[in-house]
Each structure stands twice: as structure tokens, then as C-alpha cells.
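Case study 2.
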Amino acid sequence: MQPFRPFEMERWQSTYEYRVDFNLSESGVHPLSVRELLDLAGQETADDTLLGYGQSNGSDELRAAVAALYPDASEAGVVVCNGSAEANFAAMWRLVHPGSEVVVVVPTYAQTIGLVQMLGGTVKTVPLLEENGWQPDPAAIRAAAGDRARVIVVTNPNNPTGALLSSEAREAVVAAAERSGAWIVADEVYMGAELSGRETPSFFGATERVVATGSLSKAYGLPGLRIGWTVSPPATREELWARTDYTTIAPGTLTDRLAHMALSPEVRPRLLERTRERIVAGLEILEAWMADVGVFSYRRPEAGAICYVKYDLPVGSTELAERLRAEHSVLVVPGDHFGMDGYVRFGIGNPPEELHAALERVGEAVRALRQEGVSTPL
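Prediction:
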């Protein structure tokens, strides 16, 4: 058995996110209430929902709604999970074995890296290059995958950079997977949260061996429903579903019903429009503030309520995040949690008044740090 590896970012967020005045560590937009979702769906109530066990892989209606989001998918290939965390867990549990080589495009949400290591696999990383617009070198993808890769993991749109993989990078991932016989695990939870309004094409359907994961958390503003999913070939679906028998068994019946409402053709576009409006507004606030403060550099994100920024201050990212938390009651994610010191991830999905107030406190911390010593040039 491999040693347990704590998930640093989730421990950081879950320990402090409700113990600060302002949480800028969240990567989704400010959530809706149940009442707001019901109003969008034109429903008076969901009080008649029976709180028994529901269909353990998700109701037929919800699985059909999820399948409709993907090219050539059917409900027979969908497993509804408790968030994308369970979806990713089931996928990696199914695909990674002791000695498996797994290629991961980084920086990324570190859950899959930790799972590979605990399942006895070996992680080979391919970096996103900031100077290349947070795109990977296709040659690096080919070299990392080689002939032995078992899985290639991509997060697209990316967390933490908010970048979208270029068509060249996508083609390189697919070609590497086909050459080596690897599976692609595509974490696509930010799909639908693109600033442009043009949804990112899924990796599902690009080759035969793909497990795409998604959820209602980031692009929909419904993280409290804890609804995620896997989309895969039907035969693989059976194996993923079997693994959830050992975890949470089934999604909640109430959340299943509300999720079906959210993904209806009438409601889904309204939710995504709300998300884009909030992301655009939040990014405008953050960009104006960073231009005034003057210690940050960044590549503009293309998706997600996040902005990954490099800073020019004389402290490491964990120390900076801790000082913001302890001294100013603002929570951010340090770049250390993505293996990149000297960066922080700001969430921009808060209501505008909260975001303004939180950034004012971060500005106070920046001014104090600049007075403490001379910073290192970028």
C-alpha cells in the first residue's frame, strides 16, 4: 500500500474558507440559492421529492441531460457522481495500477497527481509554458507519453491558469494517446465558463479511450448540489459505476432533481450567461486593481472565475497566502499548491462589492511587504 498524500489545496481551503472575511480561493462564481434555481426553472417547489435512495448512477433523466452536452454520447455512458472529485477518483481508480505511467499536463488541480502516486503509478509532467500563452510544447507531450503511457490527464479549460488548450496541443494529446494506447482523462469542469461564450470542445469522442469528467460546481454556480459525472464508453461506464458502490453509492435524490432542472435546455443557457457576466465583471475589477498596485503580471484567463498571477514581492507564495489569511482575513491559493512558487490564484467570482473590499485588504498587505524589503525583479 502506498503512503497517503494529503491534498494540500483542499486542506487549505476547507480549513479556512469559512473562517475569513473574504474567500478569494474559490474558483467558481458566487452560488445560487435553491429558490433562485427554482425560479429560473419556473418551479414553485421541490418539496414533493422523496428522500429515499435514487438510481445509483443518476436518474435516467439526468444522465440523458449530461449526455446531451457531449458529441455522440448516450446516457449509457454516463455515471452521475458526488462532484467531479468522485468522478476523477473513480476514473483514476479504474485506470491506474501499480507501475502505470501517467502523463499529467501541469499546473493542474492536484487531485489526480495525488491519486496516481497513492495507486502506485508514476507521474510524468508536461508543463504549460507561460511565455507560450500557457500552452504545452507538443514535442514534450510526445516525449512524455512515449510508448508506455497508461493515462494522459488534462484539465481543459485549465485550473489554475484559465487557459484553453490550442487545437495543436489537443491534437498532440490525442495523437500521443492513440500511439501509446493510453486513456485520456479530461477534467472539463470549467467548460461553459469561457469568457468568449464559445464552449470548449470536449475531449470525449476525440479517440476511443476517453473519460471526460464534469460538474455543476464551476460553470454553473451550484457547487452545493455536489453533482458531477463521468462520460465514457458504455463498457467502461459499468466499471466506473461499480467503483462508486464503494464510495458514496448514489447521488442525493433532491440534488439529482435540481441538477436535471439546471441542465434543461431552458435553464442551462441562463446559468452560463450569469456565470460569464460575473467572470467578466470580476476580471475587470481585478485587472484595474492590479494595474494600480503594480506588482503583478499575468496572462489573461480565457475561462473560469480565476486569474493566476505572478508577483514581485520578497516572500514565498505560502507565506504570502498565510499573511493574507492571518493578518487581513483574505484567503487565496498559493502557487506552491500547484508546484509554482511566486504565483497566487485569485478567485474573481465574488459579488463586486466583496471583491473590491477583499482586494483593498490585499493591497494593504502588498504595501506593507514592499516597505519591509526590496523585492526581486520579475
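The CA atoms of residues 190 and 219 lie 6 Å apart.
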